[in-house]
# Entry
Amino acid sequence: MWGYYFNELIHSLPFFLKGLWMTAAVSGLSLIAGTVIGFVLGILRSGGNKWLKTVIGAWVDLVRGTPFLVQVFIVFFILPEAGIQLEAFPAAALALTNMGACFICEIVAGGLSAVPNGQREAACASGLSRIQQLRYIVLPQAMRTILPPLVGQYVLIIKDSSVVSAIGVVDVTRVGWLTVQRIPEGIMVFGLVGILYFTICYPLIQLSIRLEKRMTIVTTRL
Amino acid sequence: MIEFKSVNKWFGDLHVLKDINLAVAKGEVVVVCGPSGSGKSTLIRCINRLEPIQNGELVVDDMAVHDRKTSMTLLRAEIGFVFQSFNLYPHMTALENVTLAPMKVRGMPRGKARQLGLQILERVGLGDRGASYPEQLSGGQQQRVAIARGLCMHPKIMLFDEPTSALDPEMINEVLDVMRDLAGGGMTMIVVTHEMGFAREVANRVVFMDVGQIMETASPEAFFTKPQTRRGKAFLSKILRH
# Structure
């Protein structure tokens, strides 16, 4: 019987790969949009405007402090009551982007605050504008601190994307749920799901470890 | 060139500059000295508004620094500032450190900025170290690059905030030599320093500060031989003992 199920699973592989593609699509889109928005929020959060800092801080804390599944349900089931009707994929991408952006905001703000204040002062004293200070002096130095946890956050976004299967997005997790009804060997089916997630996460994990090691060497030299 | 008129500054409740009145003429070299916490560094940091003042007037090169509406970008380009801890950009070479502001603030083309940068590095004795990163330079060399970074903007004023305090003794002279050379060339300079030999030799005027106030202003000779205030005498007796 096990052999039969194994063969069925192999025949289902194209279906799993389609699901993997959906996972990659929703994660990839959210990752890119979340990074752009997260950087903007992080820069504003570490700037001088107290009002902006408070508003962004409150939103970030709210998103980071609530379950992602709840956020996905709010976007998909509650927003239509306010007239914003979204299909499953856009709703999933929106919720995942929002969550990613909030975590990336904190990573970026932390990285920016780790740059010694003397660097900003020297740049300011040279006549560089705030944007020039950020672009040429602060951000390049902050990236050393930001990159390792940023890549780690990408891994988390990919894994958290499995939650969007709850609103009907046919990602690799949902494919697993649908397949296990035909092939009732949970360990086999979800083992494959796990392996597929691992194939896209592992390279990023290794990249994060390498960046962290490189960061340690750089800070030791400094 | 620089004029403080009844300037007051607070950090929260702490009154750090008390009714400062000071005028510095073009080409003058003024040394500001005093015990720790006297407000010396805060005084010069107000000149390019690294620290804002709360009260009084501060006019630099005919621009009202005390007025929040005054755009400081252009004025800061005319004022070179050398920090105690150098503050070189660690991700840039010495040449990149000194050419960044000329290119991005003055809009100088890269080739011309590079030429200028090498010329100024040569002037401070580091013409062959343009490709080095700050971590590859000694403290004295880093501080000379920091001075070069200020000079590349052809400033009207150079401000030095304890430029040799973070250096090993054997490196102090190489930095002071560069500063002597600048002073000899007619640069308007305000130098916060404990290097009294330098002050005696190069300064036109010594300003002694204590507890946020200017206690005495005199020529170096007058200050070092006959300080007028009790605090001035006490300060000199401690500092000249070493």
